[in-house]
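Lab notebook, design round three. We kept the backbone fixed and only want residue identities now. Task for the bench partner: fill in a sequence for the structure below.
Input structure tokens:
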């Protein structure tokens, strides 16, 4: 059992180290030597768990799909809103989320979990439930709108990263929803929705790291996709 526990911990250390390297450098520039250094493991240990750099990147993206969830007791449309704020939270505090997002934007995909597939599916389901409950307008096409919401969030977080290392991401996401809601939600529903989120985005999330995002610089524009 002790040996198995060590193997699990070693695998976890490698994934977390890889996430930090992918988040910082992107896929092409990520060096396995740097991943080994940060994980403090041997090359043999890494290749025992991950036979290639591709499999390691896929593992990071697979874990990203576990980071967004919703509170079932909330309205379906509020749940969609809250899922974006929860993902905004983990982007600020979790290297796995940042790495998975950067790899997805760079088009790194090896046939495993689709970069945004689970989020598309979750949002589509919630929008369809919202239609059934009268929250979402009948003319809205759930899948089309779900993919638009994910795309809009992706653009918003990129801008927030570029201008202030995502320190203002929750504010920008709330602005996004104030623009989107009038086109998809029943007018009576909008009055009771909270674009800024209805729940604490950290309440149901256990971040893999606890680093705090620095406050934005006055003109802090820097390169990088995520």
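Proposed sequence:
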């Amino acid at each position: 059992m002790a040996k198995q526990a060590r193997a699990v911990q070693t695998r976890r250390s490698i994934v977390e180290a890889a996430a930090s390297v992918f988040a910082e450098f992107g896929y092409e520039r990520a060096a396995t030597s740097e991943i080994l250094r940060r994980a403090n493991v041997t090359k043999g240990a890494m290749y025992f768990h991950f036979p290639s750099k591709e499999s390691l990147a896929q593992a990071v993206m697979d874990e990203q799909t576990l980071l967004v969830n919703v509170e079932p007791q909330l309205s379906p449309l509020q749940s969609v809103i809250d899922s974006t704020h929860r993902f905004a939270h983990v982007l600020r505090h979790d290297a796995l989320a940042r790495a998975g997002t950067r790899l997805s934007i760079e088009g790194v995909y090896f046939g495993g979990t689709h970069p945004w597939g689970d989020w598309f599916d979750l949002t589509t389901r919630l929008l369809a439930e919202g239609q059934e409950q009268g929250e979402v307008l009948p003319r809205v096409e759930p899948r089309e709108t779900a993919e638009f919401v994910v795309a809009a969030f992706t653009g918003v977080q990129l801008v927030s990263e570029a201008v202030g290392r995502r320190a203002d991401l929750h504010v920008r996401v709330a602005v996004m929803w104030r623009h989107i809601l009038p086109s998809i939600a029943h007018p009576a529903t909008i009055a009771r929705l909270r674009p800024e989120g209805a729940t604490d985005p950290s309440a149901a999330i256990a971040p893999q790291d606890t680093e705090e995002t620095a406050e934005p610089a006055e003109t802090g524009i820097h390169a990088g996709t995520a």
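Keep this in mind before ordering anything: The CA atoms of residues 52 and 116 lie 22 Å apart.
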